[in-house]
Each structure stands twice: as C-alpha cells, then as structure tokens.
Design a protein that fits this description.
The protein is of the alpha/beta class and 636 residues long. It folds into 3 domains: 142 residues, no CATH class; 116 residues, Rossmann fold, CATH 3.40.50; 338 residues, 3-Layer(aba) Sandwich (Rossmann fold). It is built from 23 helices and 22 strands. The strands form 5 sheets. The protein has a 9-stranded mixed beta sheet, with helices on both faces. Strands 3-4-2-1-5-6-7 form a 7-stranded mixed beta sheet, sandwiched between helices. α18 crosses α20.
Length: 636
C-alpha cells in the first residue's frame, strides 16, 4: 500500500489541461448529437471552432472558481460544487454571448443552444465522473492490499463527526485503519448505511463484530458525548482488548479540517473527566475585564491554567509571578504565541521575599490576586518543613498583608484538601495559611472597614496530570516497562482536571463576599490501584504479564484517603452545584498573626522539631502519620 502514498499529486496545470480536453470533446459531442452525426453539417457549423470557444470560456471561468485545484484522489462535495459552479457560469456566459452575437454582430449564435445544453450537461458529468473514478480506484487499491499492520476498526457515531472521521481516514493514504462498521445510539439509524458502511445499534454488537472481523480499534466520533456513556464505551473496549481513539473537539482541528493525525488515543484523563462546568461568564468578565491581575505560581500546573483562562476575560494586565525561571520562560513563550492580545508582565520572584513583593505591588498595583504559589509535594515537605512553612504560611501572609495595604479588590487563595485533618507538614502549612487569610478578612470587616480587600479560599483535591501527580509517574513507569509503584492497595484520591479546577476557582472568586472557604465537588474517590490497572490496559499491555504492580508502603505524612472537611466543619450550599462553603471555626486574628510571626524567630534556631511543634499548636488537628514527627504528638 505504501506505493500509493509515494504517488505524486498531479500539478494543477495537468488537471486544468485534462478538464479543458473534456470541455472540448463534450462540446464536440454536443455537435455530433445535434446534427445526427452528419459530418457535412458538423463541418458546416464550424464544430471544431465552436468547441474550442466553449473550452476557452470554460478555462476562463475555471480561473475564477479554481475547480482544478482540488486533489483528485480526495475529491469531495466541495470539489463537485466547484465544478457545478464552473459549468453553470460558463453556460450563462454563453447564453449571454449568443444573445449579443446573434442580435448585434451576426445572425448566428456562437454555439447553438442545443449544443450548449448537451455540452454543459456532459461536461458536468464527465468532470465529476473521472474524479470519482480516480478516487474509487485509489480507495480500492488502498483497501485491496492486505497489510499485517492494518487496523480493522469501527467508528462510534454515525453522524456528521463520524462521516468526517471516515472521510479523513479515506483521504490519508498512510492510514492503516479499515472501517468495517459504524456504531450509534440512535435506533433510527440501525441497519442503514453511511458511506457504504453498515450502522449497528449501541455497543452491544461490538463483541460479535470483533469475533467476526477481528476488530482492533474503535474511534469515538460524537460531539459532546455524555461522560458516563464515554466511560461505558471505553470500559467495553478495554474488556474486549480493543484500542480506543477519539475525534478531538472542532476547535482543535487544523485549519477547520480533521486529519487522521488529530485523532488521538484515549487517555486516562478521558475516563476521569466529568460533565463540563457551566460558568457565570458575564460575572467573571465583569470582575476581571480591564483589571490588573496578579497570579503567583504562574508557571505551575494550576497557576498557568489560571493565566490561560483569565486571558479570555481581557484583563488590563496579567502579572505572572513564579520562582521557577525555566517554567516561567516557557509560559511567557506560550502566551506570546497563543495569547498575543493579552498584555502580560513576567516577574521572576519568591513570595517569601517581602521587599521584592512590595516592589511588585507598588509598581503594578494589582486589583485581583490569585495566590497559587506553594510547595505541594508531601514527602518532600516532610523532609524540609522549614521550606513549607516559609513558602506556604509566611509567603501567604506577606502577600495577604500587602494586598490589604494596596487596596486589592479580591485575594483568592488556592488551598488543598490536604489541609483537612492534616497528617503532614505540607497539609498543615496550607491549613495555617487558610486560617490566617480568613482571620484577616474577618478582622478587617469588623475593625478596619476602610480596607475593602475580600479574601476568598478555594480548597480542592488532586488535579489530573499536574507536576508530581501519580498519572505522569505511572505513564513514565509504563513507558519503561514497569513496574508501577503504588504505595498501598487501599489508597484512594479525589481527582479533577486542571481546567475544571481553575474554572471553579474563577467561579468561586466572583461569588465570594470575603471570608469563605469554598470546597469543590470532587466526585467519587478513585482507588489508585484501579487507576494503575486501567492505565496498563489503555497502554495496550497486560497486568503482571507485561507490567507488574508493586506496593511500596505509605510515604511519610501520606493518608490512605483525603477529606474535604474536618470533623468540626459543615457545608453550606451555593447556587453552583459543584461549589459549597465550608463552615469552619473562626480564628482570632491577633492570635494567629502572632503565631505566624513567631515562625520567623523559630526559623533562626534551626530546629525542625520546634517548627513542626509550633505548627501543631496553630493547627491542633494536625496528627502526623508515618512520619518522624509522630514523636511530637506523643509528647502532647
């Protein structure tokens, strides 16, 4: 089949020449029919000259319609439409010329009307026919060669997307996908044919089709397919050992057209994703349009996605602050290329550097702050508690205090579900930061009403594909042939896609009046062992046979399961079904402010135990787990 791919596409001038010859001979055929094949009459009526004139007229029209530019082997509806347009314009042109020539220049028409009609109809037929003939010949040769690597497959979705996917497959001479059936959930389509291929109802026939034809792949080609239904299809395919690919959304097609290369394999994120979120876009637009917005941690997983989404709401200036120079450089280049209309300012800096942060607030006067900068890796922070406290607690206090003095409208703090009943330093440091931010908000509302900054906290679980999460780790381990390392057979986690998490952060930001801790609906917890098994299946490999799973034991500070509320918290519903408000015990501002300030002097003592012990004083529910700091709990 590869020799077909090597066949060169004919130059346009050759196609134009072929089309011209067809026009000439169709006009000549018109004369033959009109004069009953009597050569004397044909010569008498200057058939050759008239046919040549018809050809020249057609060529001139082709220059306008560009009907010869289509690739013949990929002929489609648009090509046929252009040919029809060419013949129609040419027909009307000669009707006008006949009228003008017959009435003002001569008593004879350039072409007899009957010849013009026959020539036009036969030209239309022949120009389309030879293109379709070449196309069918290519398809026949392509499908006629048996290839060991050929993929026998089905397309789920017998609608517009399914037809476009099938056309893209047929157009690509390198494609090894051979479609033998369409599947669709619409009972009205059952038993019918699309592009000459039979349509079956639902996914129930899949097992029989696999047995009959040896199906190896299924392509999902349905726009806005229900997430639950998508999971059902994927699960059925994995059970049958069938690979699954998906047609991307229309906005990801290249130049508005679908190519085989754009049809991607199913990822684990597709199985864990949920229904799209409906955002209150007008409110978000109102809050961010024309504003100076500061995003800390802007080069991280959450921070960078927040920046992407904020850019759609036309801020006056988007300040992107991060300590990681390489990642910051990457996000700067991404924005220059993909979001050139959004004014940005890249700032390399550390949120722990109070002097530097003061300069930023003084220079740019941000009106909205999204604070996503944080150390988040549990085992790493268990080994370096000072770094966690300096960045997550003191860094948050520095930014919050400066926001008040700079009269920032809103300060949105991005927290984590690990702050709930924390068992590790990272989670406890985020909880301490939550307490400070909320206490500051309550204190200002009562005692200093001239300061109008609203402090809002958002709390959610793991995000899919973020740096350091299990999914990139598992992908890497599978790529290297395993084993996949899971800490415990029963460990579970909540998961959310990065875009979904950031959408909810923006939604919570506009609905917040200050002092709220918003918790997001994370769906059902996912067993990490099941996740690992599913990823092995998606990679086309078999558990144990190809990839082994090993258990390494819980890491320092790691929980078996995460929580979104602690034992003393309740929730209050909001107008958004996926966002609730945690009703937490308030903290006295002067007390928490003094406790956080005390960290500065404890840091100088270089005593990890004293630092963590003080953190446990601020966050009394912080009980260490599988950690060297458990000894501090036994001392209390």
């Amino acid at each position: 089949m590869n020799f077909l791919a090597r066949l060169k596409i004919l130059p346009r001038w050759i196609i134009a020449t072929l089309d011209s010859l067809i026009l000439f001979h169709c006009a000549l055929f018109g004369y033959l029919v009109r004069f009953n094949f009597e050569l004397a009459l044909i010569e008498q009526n200057d058939a050759v000259a008239g046919s040549f004139t018809f050809m020249i007229g057609g060529l001139l029209v082709m220059q306008n319609t560009r009907s010869y530019e289509g690739i013949v082997r990929h002929t489609g509806f648009k090509d046929g439409s252009n040919i029809f347009k060419t013949i129609l314009i040419n027909f009307v042109l000669f009707l006008f010329l006949n009228f003008f020539h017959g009435n003002f220049l001569n008593d004879r028409f350039l072409l007899p009307t009957s010849v013009l009609i026959i020539a036009s109809l036969s030209s239309l037929f022949m120009l389309i026919f030879y293109r379709l003939l070449v196309k069918e010949l290519f398809d026949y040769l392509k499908n006629g060669f048996i290839n060991r690597d050929q993929k026998v497959g089905v397309i789920f979705g017998a609608g517009e997307s399914g037809l476009i996917a099938q056309e893209a497959i047929k157009r690509d001479s390198n494609s090894k996908f051979n479609t033998i059936a369409f599947l669709d959930d619409d009972p009205k389509k059952e038993g019918k044919n699309i592009a000459g291929i039979r349509i079956y109802l639902g996914i129930e026939p899949l097992a029989k089709l696999k047995e009959q034809f040896g199906i190896t792949e299924l392509i999902i080609a349905v726009r806005d397919l229900d997430v639950k239904r998508k999971r059902e299809i994927i699960d059925e395919c994995l059970k049958l050992g069938i690979s699954v690919s998906i047609v991307p959304p229309v906005d990801q097609w290249i130049n508005g057209g679908l190519t085989v290369g754009a049809i991607r394999e199913i990822k684990i994120e597709d199985l864990l994703s949920r229904e799209p979120i409906i955002l209150d876009n007008p409110r978000i637009h109102e809050d961010l349009m024309g504003k100076v917005v500061l995003v800390t941690g802007a080069a991280g997983s959450i921070g960078s996605e927040l920046c992407r989404q904020i850019s759609h709401y036309h801020p006056k200036l988007l300040i992107m602050l991060d300590i990681a120079e390489s990642a910051l450089y990457d996000i700067e280049n991404e924005f220059k290329e993909n979001y050139p209309a959004c004014p940005i300012k890249i700032v390399l800096g550390d949120v722990r550097n109070k002097r530097k942060m003061k300069e930023i607030f003084k220079a740019f006067k941000p009106q909205v702050v999204f604070h996503a900068a944080a150390y988040k890796h549990v085992p790493m922070m268990e080994n370096y508690p000072e770094e966690a406290i300096q960045s997550n607690v003191i860094g948050t206090k520095i930014l919050a205090d400066l926001s008040v003095l700079a009269q920032v409208d809103k300060f949105v703090f991005v927290s984590t579900d690990k702050a709930v009943n924390p068992t590790n330093v990272m989670g406890a440091s985020k909880r301490a930061a939550e307490m400070y931010v909320q206490a500051l908000n309550d204190y200002l509302q009562v005692n200093h009403k001239k300061y109008h900054t609203k402090f809002i906290t958002t709390r959610f679980g793991n995000v899919l594909g973020s740096n350091g999460s299990v999914i990139p780790l598992f992908k890497k381990q599978i790529l290297h042939g395993g084993p996949i390392t899971v800490t415990h057979p029963e460990i579970t986690r909540f998961f959310m896609t990065i875009p979904e998490a950031c959408q909810l952060v923006l939604e919570a930001a506009v609905m917040g009046h200050g002092g709220e801790i918003y918790v997001f609906d994370m769906g059902e917890p996912v067993k990490i062992l099941d996740l690992a098994k599913k990823m092995i299946q998606l990679s086309g490999k078999k558990e144990e046979e190809d990839i082994k799973i090993t258990f390494t034991g819980l890491r320092e500070g790691e929980k078996l399961y995460e929580e979104l509320l602690n034992d003393f918290e309740t929730v209050k519903i909001t107008h958004h079904p996926k966002i609730k408000i945690a009703q937490v015990l308030p903290s006295a501002y002067h007390k928490i402010d003094g406790q956080v300030e005390l960290f500065q002097s404890i840091v100088l003592k270089n005593s990890e135990n004293e630092l963590v012990a003080h953190l446990k004083t601020i966050v009394p529910e912080f009980i260490s787990n599988s950690s060297r700091f458990e000894v501090l709990d036994r001392m209390n």
